[in-house]
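Suppose you are handed a protein chain with no further information: no name, no annotation, nothing but its sequence. What can you learn? This example shows the usual starting point.
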Amino acid sequence: MFKTIKKLFKRAWNWRLRKKWHVIPFILITFIVIFLVFYNFHFTLTESLNRNFFYIDTRFPQVKIGDYVTLDVTYPYGEIPEDIRVTKIIACMYGQYLQVNGLKFYCDGDYIGEAKEETMSGKKTRVFQYDGLIPYGKLFLMGPHEYSFDSKYFGLVEVTKLKMLLKPVF
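A reasonable first move is to predict its three-dimensional structure. Written in structure tokens, the prediction is:
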């Protein structure tokens, strides 16, 4: 009799423990969602960046080469009808010399990337042409992916058009 009660108690205890373990993932997921929504984090799913999880720097200090930024741009090749928000890296900025030689881009004489004549879907692109100092308040943005839609196609960007300054977490 004592063994039977002990077995029943043990089963009930194990069931309560298992029941509690089912709640922990729910609490953890809820905590993560609240944390991401209320604590200035940004997540991207694009393959055009080598980082996907960012902390949003709300102070928005002066930007520098290598900073990740977001902005809204119009995609000119008809595949995306409205403005899209893109995240890019500052590759060259005001006061620096930007030169385009064919499809190759140079900032202060250093190679920074190359444009493609066609999109991944085969549509012709219009490559941005420039040779000179970048004016104050303008930036040249790029993504590390070879087909990244960036300043190689949409040109220089006003600093005032930037929406967010992002710091990569991983």
